[in-house]
Amino acid sequence: MSHLSRTLPVKRAAHVYLVRAGELLLVEERMDDGSIFYGLPGGKAYAGETFADAAVRQVKVETGLNVTDLDFVSLLEGELLTGTKNECYAMFSRFTAHFNGDLHPTDPEVVGIKWVPFEQVESLVRYGPPPECEERNPLIWVPTRDFVRGKARTYYPI
């Protein structure tokens, strides 16, 4: 049996669980199909950028908030979206952090920011289609589901 190797692009991203009084801060972004997607503040890390630095930078752009004292919560890692044009090896890191400042997003893709009670977070998640849309892959939301239930694990293999 021959082994065919292939090289997948690596996608590294960092997101932050910002919490106040049983609520989680979510950003509202408009997808290509016009629908609203709710996600954690954060996003893609630049080449050579640490997950923590990416988290601080992305949260500032998406929310206007300054985050400090990041605490690592979990890493989601593995092959994602296999067989689609967006297939990649994903490494998604999640943190909690202290925060200060005013909500003022400067990212043009962010159309709103919302404090959502923990018990309502899962009801905002929309899965599929299209299948190549990473944000709608249920695996991406498993760490967040566990976090709001108080059962976060450190490592989530895809």
**What is the annotated CATH architecture?**
Alpha-Beta Complex
CATH topology, what is it called?
Answer: Nucleoside Triphosphate Pyrophosphohydrolase
**What best-fitting shape do the alpha-carbon axes yield?**
globular
Full CATH superfamily name: Nucleoside Triphosphate Pyrophosphohydrolase
Query: Helix tally?
Result: 3
Please identify the top-level CATH class: Alpha Beta
Question: How is this structure best described in words?
Answer:
- This protein is globular.
- It has helices at residues 51-63, 118-121, 138-148; strands at 10-17, 19-20, 23-30, 36-39, 42-44, 66-80, 88-100, 110-117, 155-157.
- The chain is α+β, with helices and mostly antiparallel strands.
- A hairpin with a 5-residue loop joins strand 3 (23-30) and strand 4.
- The chain has a single domain (10-157), classed as Nucleoside Triphosphate Pyrophosphohydrolase, CATH 3.90.79.
- Helix content is 18%, strand content 41%.
- The strands form 2 sheets. A 5-stranded mixed sheet has the order 5-1-7-6-9, with helices on both faces.
- It holds the Pfam family NUDIX.
- Keywords: Hydrolase.
- InterPro entries: NUDIX_hydrolase-like_dom_sf, NUDIX_hydrolase_dom.
- Its cofactor is Mg(2+).
List the defining traits of the structure above.
single chain, 158 residues, alpha+beta, 4-stranded antiparallel β-sheet
